Amino acid sequence: MSSATLQKLHWCLMIIADQLSEIRIELNSSQILLGQLTRGAAAQAASVTQLQVRMDAAEKQLEDVHTETAGGPSLMELWRKVNRSESLQEKVNTEMESRLRAGEDQLDHLQTERSGQISSLESRLTGGLNRTADVELRLRSTETQLEHLEAHTAGKSFSLCPSSPVPSLWSLRTLSCSALEVALRVREEQLEHLDSHASGQISSIESRLTGGLNRTAGQISSLESRLTGGLNRTADVELRLRSTETQLEHLEAHTAALEVALRVREEQLEHLDSHTSVLTFRLNGTEQRLDELQTDCAVRAADLRSVSGGLTVAQEELQVQRAAIAAAVEELNTKGGEELKVGFSAGLTDSGVVGPFDQETTLIFSKTVVNVGLGYNQSAGVFTAPVRGFYFFSFTAADYLKGYTGLHLYRNEEPVFFSLELNDHGGYASTCSSMALQLEAGDRVRLSLPASYRLYDDSRNFSVFSGFLLFPL
User: Fold this and answer.
1) Where in the cell is it found (predicted)?
2) Is the peptide bond before 162 cis (omega within 30 degrees of 0)?
């Protein structure tokens, strides 16, 4: 068989392999899409259940808020008690002030009255003392006159003798002295009587004054005791007033806290109402989307059944082609048994998403499927040509998000090919490219991912790098 025939056969094998890869990728994409739709429907059902649970919780909170709000009469009762306490306190204060003012007025009146009585007694006592001084002065004057009269009488008696021829004159003198003595005794009796009368009056005035002073002192003591009692009662009232004011402050603070809590509950209630409205709107939208997804799932299931039927036919055709390819390969191996065999095929990874990176990065296809001739280094992701020859390379890249995906094919450090694919529908998408290169012994071939691009691969080998030697030169 000629080299041209072998080359055509290899090209046919490559085309069939590409078609088989595309069919497998489409089948995997359909299965993944079906799984996603199933999971999405389950997630939507779970979301609806959660929304119902949250709606029940919100309704319960609303009932609790209404129950707490219904406690408003107790707050009004507290306000009424506070108002009654304030009015009672004002009445007590007014009564105590009026009684205190009345006591003070009465005390002032008693003090004024007692002051007048004391002033009157003092003036009367002063008058009595003045009259007593006048009497004493008159008494001393009379005593002085009496002494002068006695001295004059004695002088006259010595100058006269008993044998005097004038007896009538002596008798007259004697009678005059007797009259004077009688008058003197009368005056002395009158003075004694006046003295005793003045002493009695002074004693009476002193006793009356002492009694008045004692009564005044008793009344003052009584008033002081009443005033002390009033002050004590006022202190008790002030203490009760302070206690009532403290209770009132506590009640006001508690009332303010209740008002704040009530406002917070009202805000929470408004928030719950708005949140409930939003949840209701979202629930309606979710139910509508769920209906649409169910319809879409039914359509996709029908499409999947159609694709499965076409895939079965394609698999049957592929098996026929593979049998023909196997026969052709066997024939080639039989005829070219002495030729060098070099070929490899490797998957990217099992971890899922690869990239995006900040800079262009060499891809390491670490899942080696076949590596005949050991030209591929799975640790570095680089194929090294063992001999000078004509080589064929192909690769498949896949992703499932919207955006660009693509690969650079490098020979040594020279970019020789760039494959670009736009995923504008957001599902699984793949791109396949191939290229034949003439390599010298030692030339290296690798694939790199541009910056900000990404790929996807898992155990199903969505992204694969393959290459083999067509013929040496």
Assistant:
1) Secreted
2) no
